[in-house]
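Hi W.,

Here's what went into the run:
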Amino acid sequence: MSLYIVEAEIMPKRGVNDPQGESVLSGLKLLGFDRTSKVRVGKLIRFQVEAESADAAHAQATEMCDKLLANPVIEEYELKVAEA
Amino acid sequence: MHVGVISFPGSNGDHDALANLESDLGVTVRRVDYRETRLTGLDAVVLPGGFSYGDALRCGAIARFAPVMTELQRASVDGLPILGICNGFQVLCEAHLLPGALLRNKTLKFHCHWTHLRFENVSTPWTNNLEVGEVLRLPVAHGEGSYFIGADELAQLEGNGQVVARYSDAAGNVVEAVNGSVNSIAAVCNESGNVVGLMPHPERATNDLIGGADGLKMLKSLLQAEPVAV
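Here's what came out:
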């Protein structure tokens, strides 16, 4: 068993309204960053998990995202797995 | 008629529901603690508004794991009338008892005002006292009430008549939802119709003394609903 650090990056799906992202974009434009576009606000969840291998840790994290961490109706996710 | 109102940690609409269902609808009410595992003796269950579990992760995402939810899931299959109001609606979506999800309001503001709803599905145990096209005036109070569902599921929802009500004007013309809900959807039901969820608060409109009684007209549906033993 090894310890792995998992990062789940959860983002609103394409086509799902992200009013937070739009507000952040308008703030950035007010600050003069006027070449900015397509701001999306998501969340990052980081945790440790014990597993036989990186693949096994990835499989566990996938199940966690599907069952709780992300809502598949509105969100998609990407996982990063690294040895702790 | 016995109606249970589930109290989750962070629910705040439970007392409104308990008080008004008892005094204005005239049913016997029971506060159901989220740790309970039996719903025996109840003819209907209400999931109230509020901020269960502090809205951690997503609204309703954690309440889904409360012990009482296992029994609610089972009772929903048996046809028990279940109504999710506001946070209760979010919980039912997260628990997959209703399709779709509720997103942050398009305006990013907390919306707290009276609104009109046009009812389309009046064959549910929560709407059978209404007529198709009937308009009710109900209050809303939510920050995350923008109903969303993917295009294919939306078509299915519309085709099945699972859209129970949409935001409208007083004359019943459907208007764009200020919270950004797709197709102006304010209330939906499951395929069998016994589980209904809506963002507006019928339990806060049960008496003219509190600003309106249209919610009571909707809730009276329950008195005519077919009894279900669970």
